[in-house]
Amino acid sequence: MESKSLHIHWFRRDLRLKDHRGLLLGSRSGRPVLSLFIFDRTILEQLDDPADRRVQFIWHQLNHMREQLESAGSALLVFHGHPSEVWKQVLERYPVGSVSVVRDYEPYARKRDRKVGELLNQYGIQLTGVKDQVIFEKSDVLSQAGEPYKVFTPYSKQWKQSLNSRDMAEATVPDGLFYRVEPAPFPSLESLGFRRETSGLADFPSSEIPEKIIRSYDQTREVPALEGTTRLGVHLRFGTLSIRTLVRYALRWNDIFLKELIWREFYQMVLWHHPESPDRAIKPAYDRIEWEENPDHFLAWCEGRTGYPMVDAGMRELNQTGFMHNRVRMITASFLTKHLMTDWRKGERYFAARLLDYEMASNVGGWQWAAGSGHDAAPWFRIFNPTLQQKRYDPEGHYIRTWIPEFGTSAYPEPIVEHKLARKRALSRYKKAVAETGS
Ligand code: FAD
């Protein structure tokens, strides 16, 4: 083998082999491409559940990619370790000439990539990042004043105006791209410290684009009792579906659906410009709010025992399935921050541990929206009435009865807080922190 004759694509949250800009970049290096994935100990060690469904999803998807690569005469190298340590081993074993990754905008990922980039530099190799998981990233979409947008509607307008054939072009991966090599060992979930409770990708939401749902999305998306949304979140999170493909369909079929995909990019952009936002309010005054420390209330919220059926149904859906409808995410988040006056960071972390489609940018964005502290957030004085929300979005009670079998019996708990009192408390705490400081 000639020296420096390989290109490595390091897969992370771009787990597919089609319409892939990282692989396209690899093909342009003129070198055969070898595929690498690292089960990152730093990330896995933070997960409490040995049957974590995200890890199982990734594992099944990697297994599928491994089969595809092996039938093309190549292999998928899969390691378990700290990325910089793994990379040292890879560089000792393989004649690496160039490396590509799909850019990831989360604070930990940015730090990790900087570190690995520096290591590769020491070997005279460049780590090249490409944009692939969004149409527009970082500062691609700026206001006329050259600033990142803080309000969604003008961002969205500018996003649409900026759409062009270059950013939307399909990244066709050429045949014969992959390095011919013997198959590599593939770790079991047990060896990674996890347990397998799913038989394959069929146990997860499908990555097929559901035409019918998208076409009628504007009619059905607000009804949690219906299958009126696509459940594609996990596929966008792990890149098992190309965002360019999905946007193409959205443009053709439903403008309201497109709007939601733009919200996703808005939050990715906000996280890029505010890497502190998982831990701090984007509007600093909101970090002066006096939060309650009430472990019983927090636990009742987590377990779906607040006595507010829409909140409880949502939390039970989340606990049992790893999914919660968007409207109900808004209601449960608002209830925790405003009715229970509990710090939004606790709720964000609870969702983060359980959502199959967990996406830091959207989750932090959604929580800071509910708490009022984010860009274009719900105004602090707007407090959802969970009972009215139920009347509006689940008038027949189909959704709540699905998740609360004891609803309407004496086994269902009484409300843990009284709506009017809770509302009054929230208004006064928020007012003190936010309004009276002139923010
Ligand atoms: P669909 O309604 O079919 O939408 C398609 C895709 O568009 C989604 O999969 C998602 O990628 C994107 N999208 C839709 N709505 C939004 C939105 N409001 N903001 C950003 N992206 C959106 N979304 C996540 O992907 N991960 C999260 O961790 C997450 N946490 C949230 C927390 C809170 C408190 C709130 C209010 C919202 C959160 N969202 C999150 C946004 C939204 O609730 C989910 O994207 C949506 O419910 C996922 O279901 P779906 O795949 O059927 O979406």
Protein topology:
Layout: E1 6-11, H1 21-28, E2 33-40, H2 41-44, H3 53-71, E3 76-81, H4 83-93, E4 96-102, H5 107-122, E5 127-130, H6 152-162, H7 165-168, H8 211-215, H9 217-220, H10 233-237, H11 243-253, H12 255-273, H13 295-303, H14 309-321, H15 326-339, H16 344-354, H17 360-371, H18 386-393, H19 398-403, H20 419-435
Parallel strand pairs: 1-2, 1-4, 2-3, 4-5
Bound molecules: flavin-adenine dinucleotide.
Residues 221, 229-233, 236, 260-261, 263-264, 267, 326, 329-330, 333, 351, 355, 357-359, 362-363, 366-367, 370 line the site of flavin-adenine dinucleotide.
What does this structure look like?
The protein is of the alpha/beta class. Helix content is 47%, strand content 7%. It has 20 helices and 5 strands. It has helices at residues 21-28, 41-44, 53-71, 83-93, 107-122, 152-162, 165-168, 211-215, 217-220, 233-237, 243-253, 255-273, 295-303, 309-321, 326-339, 344-354, 360-371, 386-393, 398-403, 419-435, and strands at 6-11, 33-40, 76-81, 96-102, 127-130. The protein has a 5-stranded parallel sheet with strand order 3-2-1-4-5, with helices on both faces. Helix 5 links the parallel strand 4 and strand 5 (127-130). The chain is globular. The mean pLDDT is 97. Flavin-adenine dinucleotide binds at residues 221, 229-233, 236, 260-261, 263-264, 267, 326, 329-330, 333, 351, 355, 357-359, 362-363, 366-367, 370.
